[in-house]
Amino acid sequence: AQSVTQLDSQVPVFEEAPVELRCNYSSSVSVYLFWYVQYPNQGLQLLLKYLSGSTLVKGINGFEAEFNKSQTSFHLRKPSVHISDTAEYFCAVSETFGNEKLTFGTGTRLTIIP
Amino acid sequence: DAGVIQSPRHEVTEMGQEVTLRCKPISGHDYLFWYRQTMMRGLELLIYFNNNVPIDDSGMPEDRFSAKMPNASFSTLKIQPSEPRDSAVYFCASSLERGSLGTEAFFGQGTRLTVV
Questions:
Q1: For the residues A73-89, what does the mean pLDDT come to?
Q2: Reduced to 3 states, what is the DSSP secondary structure of residue A76?
Q3: Which of A55, A97, B71, B110 is the most buried (most CB within 10 A)?
Q4: Interface with chain A: mutation pick from B36, B103, B109, B111, highest number of A CBs within 10 Å
Q5: Which chain A residues contact residue B35 at CB under 8 A?
Q6: How many whole angstroms separate alpha carbon B84 and alpha carbon B19?
Q7: In this predicted model, what pLDDT tens digit does every residue of B12-57 receive, in sequence order?
Q8: B80 touches chain A (CB under 8 A)
Q9: Maximum C-alpha span of chain B
Q10: What is the pLDDT of residues A15-44, one digit of tens each?
């Protein structure tokens, strides 16, 4: 079975500053990795995904993430945040074979300070 | 496509009543997932279907919960009888068959359930 750990439950960042949201996963098989964003009172929206190939993945809204297999990490980064980035961010993992289900981390609430 | 459609968006019910949540997945998607989101436990997978067949219901909390998918365009999650601890946001999501390009789940707007 796979699991996801998001160590930071809340991250406050000043506007236009860079941010990194951390995600570590555990799995006995190869995985796909995802970052989703949830705005207040909304469903989850895909930011980016890692399937294979280049370990640096670019997503929407200027976000990117890097897959590090040796450290089993998939940290999300943005060089300069905007007020509109205030939301909850979820890292998720699914197996490349076998069980189709998506397992989520507990989420990180990103708050942008003007 | 209009995306995953859930109804109702909000539901307030009294303890002991039956509650039915509805979901229309994206047309052509093979998988349908039901998740529950609470402050205490985050996002929990309750059950998922592949081609209308339940594959894994190990996340269903107890017998009061049941889910059906009578056809490819409709699913329900029923709670009978409901209890205050069932209060949460319930999300439905759908995805395509996993292939070489991987898969991503598309989420509905959720149903906020309050049991008083």
A1: 97
A2: strand
A3: B110
A4: B103
A5: 104
A6: 12
A7: 999 999 999 999 999 999 899 999 999 888 899 999 999 999 999 9
A8: no
A9: 47
A10: 999 999 999 999 888 889 999 999 988 899
